[in-house]
Design goal:
This protein is mostly beta strands. The chain has no helices and 11 strands.
């Protein structure tokens, strides 16, 4: 059974940090490009960051560049989030993709940035 399980969300004050994890199982993780996508209340999904299957190329939305860092190891993907802002509040989802046919999503983890 394919599973992507996010963890590490929570509530943090502005300027704080969180580290999200996405644990993968049931498929060959090393074959898949990985992405973080977030959705804020009342808004559409927003692509946040991506990392290729080899882990040697990373990509960031302008809104998080310089503050967030995406990484991966054998069976997990991570998102280190620093200097958090209230506008980073959202449910964060991890996505695995191999081409356009094999696409898997996690259930999401809530991140709330508030004083």
């Amino acid at each position: 059974e394919v599973q992507l399980v996010e963890s590490g969300g929570g509530m943090v004050q502005p300027g704080g940090s969180l580290r999200l994890s996405c644990a993968a199982s049931g498929f060959t993780f090393s074959y898949y490009d990985m992405t973080w996508v977030r959705q804020a209340p009342g808004k559409g999904p927003e692509w946040v960051a991506g990392i290729n299957f080899g882990g040697d190329s990373t990509y960031y939305a302008d809104s998080v560049k310089g503050r967030f860092t995406i990484s991966r190891d054998k069976n997990k993907m991570y998102l280190q989030m620093n200097s958090l802002k209230p506008e980073d509040t959202a449910v964060y989802y991890c996505k695995a993709a191999r081409g356009s046919y094999f696409v898997y999503w996690g259930q999401g983890t809530q991140v709330t940035v508030s004083s």
